[in-house]
Amino acid sequence: MMSQTLQSFLKAGAAIVLTVLCAVCSRDSGGAGVAVDLSERGRDTILFDTVVYINDTFTFAHESEESEEIDEIRWTLNNASAGSGRTFSFVSHDIADTGDKIIVGFIFYTDGTIDTERILLNLAAGYPRVRLTLADSTKPDTLFTDSLYRFFAIPDDPNGSIIACLWDFDHDGVFEDTSAADTLSRSFPTAGAAMFIVRVLDDDSLFSAADTFAVHLSMGAPQVNVFFDPSIVGNQIYIGQQISFVASAKDPNGALISLMWDTTGDAVFDCVIALDTSLFSDTIILSFTDSGHYAVAARVRDNDSLYSETKTLVFVVRRGEPSINSLLFTGYFSDLDSLLIDTVYDIAAVARDLNGVVRALFWDMDGDGVFDDTVTADTSWLNDTQQRAFTIPGVYRIAVMAMDNDSFLSMRDSIVFTVHARNPDTMVYLFDTLALAAHPASGKTIGSMTWVQWPGILLSNADTCSFSVSDPADTGVKTIVARILYTDATFDTERVIVQVLSGRPEVFLASDGQGGMAFRDSLYTLTATATDVNGFIQSFRWDINSDGTDDYVHAVSGAQQGSVAVDSLTITFSFNGSALVSVRAVDDDSLVSSAASTILFVQDAVASKRRVSSGR
After folding, report:
1. I need a surface site. Which of 20, 321, 390, 445 has the fewest CB within 10 A?
2. Superkingdom of this entry's organism (predicted)?
3. Residue 16, CB half-sphere, CA atoms under 13 Å: how many?
4. Residue 135 three-state SS
């Protein structure tokens, strides 16, 4: 039943009401109406956009509420005469008659005037509609054979009621099931693609369009998956290691009856576990005594005697040898092209064992193939550092290998490098100070500095460094390394090679022109000349008895102090034979020169007393 108000008009002042009664004639002969006030005269058209369905009756009635008399009302349908009178009914039973309809009412008044009323209707067929779905929110991809499913047809009829649902479950175009109910339960014996179709019939004998529901029917075979225990990282399996294998199984439409394991990879399932559940997980623990390729598989069977697909894990069992991850020079010098003699270097090796511990690290430090240096340990990760200095330029090889708790040896790791001769950048003498300063690279700002006398003596953390040596035993070539950290987090490493010299004075004895001949009881004068490269000579020390003691010490006066000094000694020998005379010089750093010596041959001396005098 349906009704709608019409906007109306009539001549001014008239109290005329046009009532539209809409009723389905076969269901409600009386109908119900909605009054439409036609009191505004001067307009003669009403577009009444509404839908009228086949077999529904629309009745129009006209009533006069005042003294004004209506002489006659005539009606037309699509410009064809349709009758006269105070009421007019429109109904159509022909499906081919659908479309727009124009109904016009001509109102003749007793005063000779005429009004017209136009109404536009759309005649529609009123077909029902239907939508097909599964009960219990079952997803289309979870349908299994031999399982009972309930289907819902959800119909809708715009102007009546549904009298029947027609079902086609084999997609052959024949609707073999007809029922008044909108629910139907069915099971399906065959797996594969399936399409279910439904349509409905209403009380006007109109059929809806068919709604289809496509699914894939599965036999509902059980499923199983096999995986390693999560503690196995990267499928790394080793001899003797206990490994957990997990099988997870389920049956989507029934119960699991058995789980079967093949632990040897021979396709024989020799381990069977009885079950009675739809969901199950099982873990087995295996270990292997030999390296090689292995396979472990599992499958399940359900209460429908269906077997799952066999799931197989293929993996490699390794011996588990330790590994040498790195062998390198560490510290400031990691460039193998810049190694120098007489410098101590740190050589580091990192050994690792993934399934045990490293028990030993073997070093071949001289490249002869013999690992004659051993470091013992008991850890899965071993860092070891060896120190080595090279005294001869040339090509060197260092190798290392590790042994684990299974007595497996790693591969050898080795490095080959060249050690170069040293050419000092500068030199400094004992007790002297060498001043060094850092200069940043272009566009850089120094953040911090570290000065180190290699290999491990910290000299300074400032931008400058003062270097000196006071121990005469510490002369030789020194390496000073400056590590510059810039404010932009970059760094430079600079190296200065310093030759530390003793700066000891040197002394020489002048020739006497007599070929080393001296005469007994005669005066003999010896002259010594001393030099000092970084200071001045303070004294001469003479030994005339060859006993290592200083018999005479001659200080050099202030006026004569300099890098070169001369001293003389006059003596008289009172015996015949040879005499060894030596002299040493001492500088302002208290460094003593090596002795300069001469042998004198004394002849023709008779006196029994030896007289000695000295002078300058």
Report:
1. 445
2. Bacteria
3. 26
4. helix
Contact status, residue 203 vs residue 159, Cβ threshold 8 Å: no
The two structure tokens encoding residue 591: 């460094």
Domains of the chain, residue spans: 16-124, 129-217, 223-318, 323-420, 426-501, 506-603
Contact 409, 442 (CB under 8 A): no
Q: Does pLDDT of 187 surpass 90?
A: no
Q: pLDDT class for 177, splitting at 50, 70, 90?
A: confident
DSSP at 410 = P
C-beta neighbour count of 113 within 10 angstroms: 12
The fold of the 323-420 domain, in CATH, is Immunoglobulin-like (2.60.40)
Sign of CA dihedral 333, 339, 343, 344: positive
Do residues 454 and 463 make contact, with C-beta atoms less than 8 angstroms apart?
no
Antiparallel, parallel or unpaired: β 426-429 and 491-501: parallel
What is residue 521's DSSP assignment?
Answer: T
Cis, peptide link before residue 455, omega less than 30° from 0: yes
Strand partners, 517: 601
DSSP for 412-469 reads: PEEEEEEEEPP--SEEEETT-EEEEE--PPTT--EEEEEEEETTTEEEESSSEEEEE-
Supply 137's token pair. Answer: 């929110």
* Residue with token string 């599964």: 134
Architecture of domain 426-501: Sandwich (2.60)
3-state secondary structure of 138: coil
- What mean pLDDT comes out for the span 224-249? 83
Q: Which of 352, 373, 354, 353 is nearest to 362 (CA)?
A: 373
| Terminal CA-CA length for the chain | 153
Q: Which residue has the higher pLDDT, 495 or 137?
A: 495
Q: How far apart are CA 516 and CA 511, in angstroms?
A: 8
Q: Report the candidate in 327, 331, 357 with the shortest Cα–Cα distance to residue 344.
A: 331
- Superfamily (CATH H level) for 129-217: Immunoglobulins (2.60.40.10)
Does domain 223-318 sit in CATH 2.60.40.10? yes
Beta-sheet strand order (sheet of 344-352): 323-330, 344-352, 381-389
Cβ atoms 323, 402 nearer than 8 A:
yes
16-124 is a CATH 2.60.130.10 domain: no
In this prediction the pTM is: 0.41
Burial of 592 (0-12, 13-18, 19+ CB in 10 A): middle
Neighbours of 403 (CB within 10 A): 21
Q: 365 φ, ψ to 5°?
A: -90, -15
Report the distance separating Cα 115 and Cα 44, nearest Å. 7
